[in-house]
Amino acid sequence: MQRTDFSRMACSIARTLDVIGEPWSPLILRDVWVGLTRFEQLQGDLGISRKVLTERLNHLVDQGVLERRPYDQRPRYEYVLTEKGAELVDLLMVMTRWGDRWLAGEAGPPVLYRHHACGEVAGVDLRCDHCGEPMHANDVDPLPGPGAAR
Amino acid sequence: MQRTDFSRMACSIARTLDVIGEPWSPLILRDVWVGLTRFEQLQGDLGISRKVLTERLNHLVDQGVLERRPYDQRPRYEYVLTEKGAELVDLLMVMTRWGDRWLAGEAGPPVLYRHHACGEVAGVDLRCDHCGEPMHANDVDPLPGPGAAR
DNA sequence: CAATCGGGGTTCCCTCAAGGAACTGAGGTT
DNA sequence: AACCTCAGTTCCTTGAGGGAACCCCGATTG
After folding, report:
1. Greater confidence, B26 or B73?
2. Most CB atoms closer than 10 Å: which of A96, A112, B87, B125?
3. pLDDT at A1 over 50
4. Which residues between 20 and 59 in chain B have a beta carbon less than 8 angstroms from any beta carbon of chain A?
């Protein structure tokens, strides 16, 4: 956890960071999403300290992003995405797109996505859920909402 | 900086985290986006340690996400988003949407966005840039790309 | 022209989280 | 009985975040 607590801020970005803003958390979600769901798999793939992995997994479970469930008679557990967690993966896809565009360099993107609906390798695009036109940072003005700080 | 260096990983998520994954960085970008562009403004609004703010601003400038420029004859500077940085704000919009949905609670979203194209308060939607259909975590399969690790 | 002010940082110390390696415990297998 | 695997836990060291004080520079004020 960051030393400063972001969860009380009247800002959805800050609150989201309180859930997945700690180091490793997004990478853990990515791994769980692609099927690396067990403690040993995660630890081996990421090279993360076992102590920190335990802390992150507990926090993600507490936040309702992952669910811990047994997969054997023996005390063996795997972590799976909840609906709340799956929607966070959308965020990872947008993060991926930015990294592909600005950081991948010559070699190109390390991972591609095939879209089920059309069967093509494709990228994600941000659109307005009202009019369907592209919606980016420069296409909007922020205004105070109902949950704004007093 | 996180203790482990993510920038060498063959993963656009990890590389992106290396740019904005440190505590406070996304909140700094948000503030700059809404017009809080000066050191004192950022420090006051966020309540961040001046030391850490300096480190973060330097890192974001080094990464080409922010540009530092004088706004006076006196040694006064402001930080503005580059194109690379503005595209990161797209990521923040998606983060906001998730936080609004899962963490805002009774009070509702703290901030709303008015879309220039249609003039309405609207949210952002993820679509396939090939077929235009919705594109979420469960609608795609990841496959190795050209920049995949050997 | 000394004193003050405000913006933009630097320096210092303290605490706590990340890294890393060793250890534990429960339940199988040989 | 000895050993193996998975899933953690414990302990120590290092270094990043928090916080307060300090510094530099140019402009304004008495």
Report:
1. B26
2. A96
3. no
4. 21, 23-24, 26-27, 30, 33-34, 47-48
